[in-house]
């Protein structure tokens, strides 16, 4: 049952007028049980979609491949998606590369990297890690352990991420490579659905994972994992989840898309307000959505981490940003950074056609059309990312979207020979 908000919401401004003839008013939306689905869930539960004449029929799914396929096969109208998924689809990557675009980002933050307590203990012993060791210190400590494992003939660790074309894959690889570890040679990377990561770590099936909240903290609270890096440590403004849709559906339902963006914009503002965290956490913890302990979700929303079961704490300001700082704007430069990582890890080769396809996945024109007259970016500028001291990459690199080949070639750890088979995974 929808919950109507008591907060005063602004009107439509210059949004397109509603019509009775265009498109569905009930939108079937797929999502994975993660805190970064909050905006979609809040829009459905707290009346933001209803105020725009829309009903969001939210469908919980089990894997990103399922979400991708169900959107492609028209079982979903829109979907909660990993930010690289539309880019991969427009590049023709994956087993079912149906064209997908995004006109709206679902915020920033939420990911972390967790290693098994056994592996982390070995890192502490080998590298004499301090309790407040940085993400880069942790990566370098892991590199030292891997060096010992190679000398003794031990099987390298297996690490889980959620999908080959995911922020989790690229951030995990970025963290490993910053520490001098080759993700394709020194460790084994496998796909594990987000809700299964904690159990897989507890069972010893994997030795670590990168996934979205709340599953890192679930593992640390259970005493099976130690959080060693957060998304903000790797690159604070790294793109995370987006609203995905088929381009022809967006074209045929432009007014509905605009109303949906308006609803999500209002929901994002509401989610960012600390006064609403308890209400949001209560809804997210429901079995229909994340089905995780409400106290863990409250801590996650506040950026309050239990790094391990011994009570080691860390607070990350802005661990989740749902709206502030144009967090919902689908900036094309972010799509190009994703493309650069696909090149770096051998999923695709660089060419100018690929650049155009990557940029076409992010649609700021639809975002601006829906929110015309509001404080939104007015151009498709491609800024140099990582120059701002508050938004640095962990290894000190900066990203100039105008010079992709040089950027990729400058990394000392990268895949030297693109493998077409990897691009067809899942």
Structure description:
Its main location: membrane. This is ABC transporter substrate-binding protein. Pfam families: NMT1_2. Keywords: Cell inner membrane, Cell membrane, Membrane, Plasmid, Transport. The chain is an alpha/beta fold and about 425 residues long. It has two domains: about 210 residues, D-Maltodextrin-Binding Protein, domain 2 (3-Layer(aba) Sandwich), CATH 3.40.190; about 130 residues, D-Maltodextrin-Binding Protein, domain 2, CATH 3.40.190.
Keyword list:
426 residues, alpha/beta, D-Maltodextrin-Binding Protein, domain 2, 2 domains, five-stranded mixed beta sheet, 39% helix, disordered N terminus, disordered C terminus
What's a concise summary of this model?
This protein has 426 residues and is of the alpha/beta class. It has 18 helices and 14 strands.
> Do you know the CATH topology of the largest domain?
D-Maltodextrin-Binding Protein, domain 2
Q: For the largest beta sheet, what order do the strands appear in spatially?
A: 2-1-3-11-4
The name of the CATH superfamily of the largest domain reads Periplasmic binding protein-like II
Distance between the termini: 36 Å
Number of helices: 18
Category from helices, strands and their pairing: alpha/beta
Described by strand count, sense and barrel closure, the largest sheet is: 5 strands, mixed
Bin the strand percentage. 5-15%
Low-pLDDT ranges: 1-20, 419-426
What portion of residues is helical?
25-40%
Q: Mean of residue pLDDT?
A: 91
- Could you give the count of β-strands? 14
CATH class group of the largest domain: Alpha Beta
How many domains is the backbone divided into?
A: 2
The CATH architecture of the largest domain would be: 3-Layer(aba) Sandwich
């Amino acid at each position: 049952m929808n919950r109507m908000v008591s907060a005063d919401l602004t009107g439509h401004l210059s949004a397109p007028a509603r019509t009775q003839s265009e498109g569905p008013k009930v939108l079937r939306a797929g999502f994975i049980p993660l805190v970064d689905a909050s905006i979609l869930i809040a829009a459905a539960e707290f009346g933001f979609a209803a105020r725009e004449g829309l009903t969001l029929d939210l469908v919980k799914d089990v894997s990103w491949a399922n979400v991708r396929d169900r959107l492609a096969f028209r079982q979903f109208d829109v979907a909660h998606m990993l930010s690289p998924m539309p880019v991969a689809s427009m590049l023709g990557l994956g087993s079912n590369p149906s064209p997908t675009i995004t006109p709206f980002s679902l915020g920033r933050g939420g990911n972390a990297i967790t290693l098994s307590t056994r592996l982390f203990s070995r890192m502490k012993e080998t590298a004499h890690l301090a309790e407040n060791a940085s993400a880069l210190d942790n990566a370098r400590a892991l590199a030292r352990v891997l060096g010992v494992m190679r000398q003794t003939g031990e099987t390298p660790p297996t690490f889980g991420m959620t999908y080959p074309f995911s922020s989790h894959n690229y951030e995990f690889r970025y963290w490993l490579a910053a520490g001098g570890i080759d993700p394709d040679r020194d460790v084994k990377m496998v796909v594990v659905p987000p809700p299964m990561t904690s159990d897989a770590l507890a069972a010893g099936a994997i030795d670590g994972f990168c996934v979205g909240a709340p599953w890192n903290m679930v593992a640390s609270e259970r005493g099976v994992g130690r959080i060693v890096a957060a998304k903000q440590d790797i690159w604070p403004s790294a793109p995370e989840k987006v609203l995905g849709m088929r381009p022809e559906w967006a074209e045929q339902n432009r007014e509905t898309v605009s109303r949906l963006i308006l609803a999500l914009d209002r929901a994002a503002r509401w989610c960012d307000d600390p006064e609403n965290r308890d209400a949001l956490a209560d809804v997210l913890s429901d079995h229909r959505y994340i089905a995780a302990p409400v106290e863990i979700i409250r801590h996650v929303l506040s950026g309050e981490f239990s790094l391990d079961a011994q009570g080691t704490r860390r607070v990350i300001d802005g661990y989740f940003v749902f709206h502030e700082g144009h967090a919902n704007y689908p900036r094309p430069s972010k799509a190009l950074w994703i493309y650069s990582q696909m090149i770096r890890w051998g999923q695709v080769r660089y060419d100018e056609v690929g650049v155009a396809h990557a940029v076409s996945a992010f649609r700021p024109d639809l975002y601006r059309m829906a929110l015309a007259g509001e404080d939104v970016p007015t151009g498709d500028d491609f800024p140099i990312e990582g120059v701002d001291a508050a938004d640095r990459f962990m290894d000190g690199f900066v990203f100039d979207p105008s010079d992709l080949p040089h950027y990729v070639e400058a990394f000392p750890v990268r895949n030297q020979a693109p493998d077409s088979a990897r691009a067809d995974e899942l």
